[in-house]
Amino acid sequence: MSSYHLSESKSIAMMKFLALCFFVISLINIPIAEARIRHYKWELKYEYKSPDCYKKLVITINGRTPGPTILAQQNDTVIVEVKNSLLTANTAIHWHGIRQIGTPWFDGTEGVTQCPILPGDTFVYKFVVDRPGTYLYHAHYGMQREDGLFGSIRVALPDGESEPFAYNYDRSIILTDWYHKSTFEQAVGLSSIPFQWVMEPQSLLIQGKGRFNCSAANPPMKADVCNNTNPECSLYSTTVVPGKTYRLRISSLTALSALSFQIEGHNMTVVEADGHYVEPFVVKNLFIYSGETYSVLVYTDQDPARNYWITTNVVSRNATTPPGLAVLNYYPNHPRRSPPTIPPSGPMWNDMDSRFNQSVAIRARKGHVYSPPASSDRVIVLLNTQNRVNGKTRWSVNNVSYDIPHTPYLIALKENLLHTFSQTPPPEGYDFANYDIKAVQNNTNATASDAIYRLQLNSTVDIVLQNANTMNPNNSETHPWHLHGHDFWVLGYGEGKFDPINDPKKYNLVDPIMKNTVPVHPFGWTAFRFKADNPGVWAFHCHIESHFFMGMGVAFEEGIERVGKLPSSIMGCGETKHLLKP
Ligand SMILES: O=C1O[C@H]([C@@H](O)CO)C(O)=C1O
């Protein structure tokens, strides 16, 4: 009896306590089971590592590259405190695919949205992840991304909501290419006269690991420089159990290479691209360009007595880089046990048709189609080619090479420092009638500019990326273009010169996929549409590290008058110094 009374009074006390908790929570206005804060503290350092067995300076986040995966749920607020312990280098981190609605100052693009973070300083990024999906983060300062400063962002649906496909396990894999030369030397070479090209990367890394063949190095390398028995460069191995479905979130942050990705003996069903659901399609190999993210479903239905190769190889360039290898480890085989087969080779590097066909095959998933506006208010055509400016080899857009300003646009525009960058608007197109996109580009006296495109807030803009021949005969390259602050509808791809009368009639306005990064294929064009509805200043550029460094980019401004008060933490460089109170 007494024990009954005791437990009854206990439970009443408990209920009272809970009621009090809810009351307090409602007073301080914390939504229950809603958006949460995800707080990360990162320290960036240069460290000697051997990701492909060759010892080199690498940027680590809390000792690792790739850095920690940011795990969040839709509408969470992510706070990342970045301490720059690079000693002698500035930095800035871009949250790739996150639109930064209401926080354009935390896009992390040096020169566009913020000043660089100085050595010793701590910069706090704070933004909302407003959509589920697979995103990335990486350095956006000089060519620093290539040093290993990158990682994944995985945004889950809110509790109680489910994806339109089923899977048992979820994994993230980032693909990169890897140079043995430092990015400092590469950057200086690219801006030297004569021009020194970075050449092809030495290795491909899968989730930060690869294997350079040290014994084949010419001239030979000592064991303290390159050592194939170093455990740091044991291949990436991911363990699976037979008979399950795995969601693999595959992304590419290569410096240069376009890739094909494949898993021996397993098909992949593509279900997501750049944070949007894709009408599922099955591939044996996935073509992936720098800045893209995909989710594929893989069913582990093969002979469980062995492991399988995961491979990636360069496409679109006749590269010297050997394929990247990793292991799909069927439990309970040993994770390091090599598969008994020769690693399967991917498609031929110059198999353009297959790549083009995959681009065209990607459609929005039925039931998840966001229709684009039926027409646009403005069409900007961007010719992609090389040229020479003051003797330097550059990439250019409509024959203008892009220079990143020293005073970030966002601050310059908001604070009326318009003298800090060119006010001559960049060209809306090129000499369409007379320009031969198949001819060797011979514009040896082109111009450079830091001017930007000013867009009407809430207007609909069409971009047509037109590829062309470079300064080398019979050569046009693949360029993955990434737009900050927005997603866009991919309206179409074509070969040859874009026809402004007839090609728009063939645009897909029914079920176009939305993306933030899209390839323009050699000698081809790519068209997309977006709504300029996110007040701020946003970079749009080729995601090839050396190409953006050489001027292959532009910037868009929209609704600057709607941008809220800028945090002083983004200031301190160029003319913004004067804005900081003593
Ligand atoms: O930017 C580049 O420069 C070289 C080459 O065009 C220079 O001759 C190349 O292949 C690039 O992608």
UniProtKB/TrEMBL annotation:
<feature type="domain" description="Plastocyanin-like">
    <location>
        <begin position="45"/>
        <end position="156"/>
    </location>
</feature>
<dbReference type="InterPro" id="IPR008972">
    <property type="entry name" value="Cupredoxin"/>
</dbReference>
<dbReference type="Pfam" id="PF07731">
    <property type="entry name" value="Cu-oxidase_2"/>
</dbReference>
<keyword id="KW-0186">Copper</keyword>
<dbReference type="InterPro" id="IPR034267">
    <property type="entry name" value="CuRO_3_AAO"/>
</dbReference>
<dbReference type="InterPro" id="IPR011706">
    <property type="entry name" value="Cu-oxidase_C"/>
</dbReference>
<dbReference type="GO" id="GO:0005576">
    <property type="term" value="C:extracellular region"/>
</dbReference>
<feature type="domain" description="Plastocyanin-like">
    <location>
        <begin position="172"/>
        <end position="332"/>
    </location>
</feature>
<dbReference type="InterPro" id="IPR002355">
    <property type="entry name" value="Cu_oxidase_Cu_BS"/>
</dbReference>
<keyword id="KW-0964">Secreted</keyword>
<dbReference type="InterPro" id="IPR033138">
    <property type="entry name" value="Cu_oxidase_CS"/>
</dbReference>
<dbReference type="InterPro" id="IPR011707">
    <property type="entry name" value="Cu-oxidase-like_N"/>
</dbReference>
<keyword id="KW-0479">Metal-binding</keyword>
<keyword id="KW-1015">Disulfide bond</keyword>
<dbReference type="Pfam" id="PF00394">
    <property type="entry name" value="Cu-oxidase"/>
</dbReference>
<keyword id="KW-0560">Oxidoreductase</keyword>
<feature type="domain" description="Plastocyanin-like">
    <location>
        <begin position="436"/>
        <end position="559"/>
    </location>
</feature>
<keyword id="KW-0325">Glycoprotein</keyword>
<dbReference type="InterPro" id="IPR045087">
    <property type="entry name" value="Cu-oxidase_fam"/>
</dbReference>
<dbReference type="GO" id="GO:0008447">
    <property type="term" value="F:L-ascorbate oxidase activity"/>
</dbReference>
<keyword id="KW-0677">Repeat</keyword>
<dbReference type="InterPro" id="IPR001117">
    <property type="entry name" value="Cu-oxidase_2nd"/>
</dbReference>
<dbReference type="InterPro" id="IPR017760">
    <property type="entry name" value="L-ascorbate_oxidase_pln"/>
</dbReference>
<comment type="similarity">
    <text>Belongs to the multicopper oxidase family.</text>
</comment>
<protein>
    <recommendedName>
        <fullName>L-ascorbate oxidase</fullName>
        <ecNumber>1.10.3.3</ecNumber>
    </recommendedName>
</protein>
<dbReference type="Pfam" id="PF07732">
    <property type="entry name" value="Cu-oxidase_3"/>
</dbReference>
<dbReference type="GO" id="GO:0005507">
    <property type="term" value="F:copper ion binding"/>
</dbReference>
<comment type="subunit">
    <text>Dimer.</text>
</comment>
